[in-house]
Amino acid sequence: MGRHLLSGPWRFSEALSQRSHFSELSFDTSRSPFLRNLRIKVRSFQKPYATMSSTSQDQAGAPVSISTLSLHSTNEKSKFPYCFPSLNPVDVYRQHIGESLGQVTGIDPVKIYQRLAWTNTLDKGDLSLPVPSLQIKGKNPQDLCKEFAEKFPPSDFVHPPTATGQHLQFFFKPQALTNTVVGRILKEKAMYGTNGNHGLHNSADPSKGRKKIIIEFSSPNIAKPFHAGHLRSTIIGGFLANLYTILGWEVIKMNYLGDWGKQYGLLVNGYKRYGSEEVLLKDPINHLFDVYVKINNDVARQEAPIKELKEQIKSKQEKNEDVAELEKELEKLLEDSEDENARRYFKSMEDGDQDALALWKRFRDLSIEKYKKTYARLNIDFDVYSGESQIKPESLKSAYDIMEKTGVSERSQGALIVDFTKHGAKKLGKAIIVRKDGTPLYLTRDIGAILEREQTFHFDKMIYVVAAQQDLHLAQLFKVTELMGYKDTAGRCQHINFGMVRGMSTRKGTVKFLDDILKDVGDKMHEVMKKNAAKYEQVEDPYKTADTLGITAVMVQDMTGKRVNGYDFNLEAMTSFEGDTGPYLQYAHARLCSMTRKSGLKPEDLVAADLSLLTETHAIDLVRLLSQWPDVVLNSAKTMEPMTVLTYLFRMTHILSSGYDVLKVLGSEHEVAKARMALYESARQVLHNGMRLLGFSPVDRY
Ligand SMILES: NC(=[NH2+])NCCC[C@H](N)C(=O)O
C-alpha cells in the first residue's frame, strides 16, 4: 500500500494524463489510521447535506463513498506539508512546480511549495510565486525572477513561467487540467472541495480522530424581537457550521437562548393576565411577544405615579415636613407593582419552584419548536438548545469560588466585581459578577457556561458568533476565563463578530421575527417573478420558489461584504435579478440545470465525453476557476468570511454568462455538445457545492 502513497514526478504525470487513474488507485483504507479517519470524515459529511432539502439533480441518492474518492498521496508520505493532491488538484501543480524549480535552482522544493500563492484574477496566472518571499540574499528579486523563468525546465503541465516584476506567474496547460478537474468533479460531485487539509490533518496525532468544535450562534431572546443581529449570527454561524463539517470536524451547533432573568417572571405574570392558551399554541412566538409588550406597558404606567410620589417625598423632606404617610403609600405602590411581582416570581423560579417553572418551561419549549421550523427554512438545525437558564447554580458557585481563590474578583459596595485594570487589561474596565442583591448577570452565566462546555464537550475550538456590539462582553469573558486559570480553554475560544444591519424593517412596520422578514422578502420576490409572465407560467410551485429565492436574496445581501462592515437592508436591491444578488445566483444555477435537461444527455454520456474538444478560452478559463474550488474552501476557513465563497461563485457566474454564446450546446456537433455539457455540469456541481456550503437551497428552475 505504501507505494501508492508516494507521489514522485513519475506518479504525477500518470495522475494527470489518465482520467481513470483516480479510481484505479482507490484502495483499502482500513489499515492506516489516517485513512480510517478520513473515512469517518466522509461519512460525517453526508449528514448535513442529506438532511438539507434540495431540489437538485445530484441529490437523487448516490451515496458518496470512500471508494469514489481518489487517494494517491497523503500527508504521511508527501514531503510537502498539507499536500493532498487527491483532494485538491492544484496541490499536484504546487508539488510539480516546487520540484521542478527546486531542481534547477537548488532552492528547497518545500520552501517554494509553501510560497506559491493563488491569484485573484486569471490573467495573473493560476499560481504565482512572489520571489522576495524566498528571501534569497544578495540578488535583486526582479533579476532572480527572470533567471528562474529562463531556467524553469520544459513541462507538460505548466507553460513556461512569466516573470512579472517580482512575481513568477504560472499558467496551467489546459489539457491535463481539464481532464483532471472535470473528471474529478463529475465523479466526486458533492464531495469535490471537501476534506481539505484542516482539522484532522492538522492534528499531530491522527489517531485521536476528528477535532470537535462548538459553534454557538443565532441565540435570540424568548418573547423579544429576533433582530438583525440574530439574523446575521444565524447566517454566518450556519455557514461556519457547514464549513467545519466539510473540513472534517465534528461540529456541535449550539443555540444559547436568552431565556432567563426577571423579565421571564414578568412574562409569566403577563400571560396570566393577557394570555390565551389557544393563541399560544397556534403562534407562540408572536403571542408571547404581544403579552410581553402589554405587561411592559403596565410596568411603564405604574412607574409614573411611583416617580411622582418619590418626588413629593423628596420635596417635603427638604421642607422638613412629615412624609410617613406618603412613604407608606409608596411602599404599597412598590409592593403591588408588576415589577416587584416579576422579581418575586423570578425568585421562585431561581429557587427551583416547580410550579413557578412550569409555565416558563412551556413558553420555552413552544418557542423552540417554532424556532426549529424557521431555522429549517434556512437549512439549519441545532444540536443543542442551551440558554442562560440552563447554567447550573453549582457552576456559578464554583466559578465564584475559583475567582475568589485566584484573586480575580473582589468585593465592592456589596457586589462582587472583577477589576480588569488590575489584571493587566486596562481596556476591559470593570465588570459586576454578582449584584448587591446576590443575583448573577449575563456575563456571570457566560462564565458558568464556558466551564460547563469545557467539561461536557472537551472541545478543540469554540466559536461565538455574536454582534460586534458585544466585543467588550466577549473580551471580558475570555479574559476572566484565562485569569481563573483556564488559559488553555480561553485560547481555544474565538469571537466571530459582525457589524450592524441598518434599517431592517418589513413593509408593514418594524421587524419582529425572522418569519416576518422571510415572508416579506418572499412576497416581494413573488412580485418580481410575476413581471416575467412567460417564465412565471413554467414554474411549478411559484410560492415555494419565491420563498427560496427570497431567503437566498436576504442571505446573499448579508454575505456580500466583510463581516465587520454593516450594511443597509435593501429589499429592492436584494430581490433584483441584476447585479450580484441571490436571485441572480439562483438563476445561474437554474440555467445550467435547464441546459442539462434540454441537451438530453445522460450522466454516462458526460463521463465519456472527449474533453480535448474544449479548446476555447472561455472553456479553459472556466476549468481553471473550477480547479480553485478546494483552495477557496480552505481560504474561507482562514478568513472565516462567507464572502470568500460568495465572491468566487459570482466570478464563476460571470465567466459562465460571458461564455454561453461561444460555448453552445444545442446545435453543436454531438461530441462537442457532450464535452461542453460535461463542462457545464461540472460548473453546476461546483456552484451547487458552494451554494450549499453557504446554506442556500439551489433551485432547478424558476
Ligand atoms: N454566549 C453569548 N453571550 N452569546 C450571545 C447571546 C446573545 C444574546 N441572547 C442577545 O440577544 O444579545
TrEMBL record:
Single GO MF descriptor: arginine-tRNA ligase activity
Annotated GO CC locations: mitochondrion
Catalytic activity: tRNA(Arg) + L-arginine + ATP = L-arginyl-tRNA(Arg) + AMP + diphosphate
SMART domains with a match to the protein in the record: Arg_tRNA_synt_N, DALR_1
UniProt domain Arginyl tRNA synthetase N-terminal: residue ranges: 91-172
Enzyme class (EC, first level): ligase
Coiled coil: 299-343
EC annotation from Swiss-Prot or TrEMBL: 6.1.1.19
Pfam families linked: Arg_tRNA_synt_N, DALR_1, tRNA-synt_1d
UniProt cross-references to PROSITE patterns, sorted A to Z: AA_TRNA_LIGASE_I
Keyword Nucleotide-binding listed: yes
Keywords: Aminoacyl-tRNA synthetase, ATP-binding, Coiled coil, Ligase, Nucleotide-binding, Protein biosynthesis
Limits of the DALR anticodon binding domain: 585-702
Entries under InterPro entries matching the protein: aa-tRNA-synth_I_CS (IPR001412), Arg-tRNA-ligase (IPR001278), Arg-tRNA-synth_N (IPR005148), Arg-tRNA-synth_N_sf (IPR036695), ArgRS_core (IPR035684), DALR_anticod-bd (IPR008909), Rossmann-like_a/b/a_fold (IPR014729), tRNAsynth_Ia_anticodon-bd (IPR009080)
GO biological process, one term: arginyl-tRNA aminoacylation
Family: Belongs to the class-I aminoacyl-tRNA synthetase family.
NCBIfam families per record: argS
Name of the molecule in the record: arginine--tRNA ligase
Protein source organism: Elaphomyces granulatus
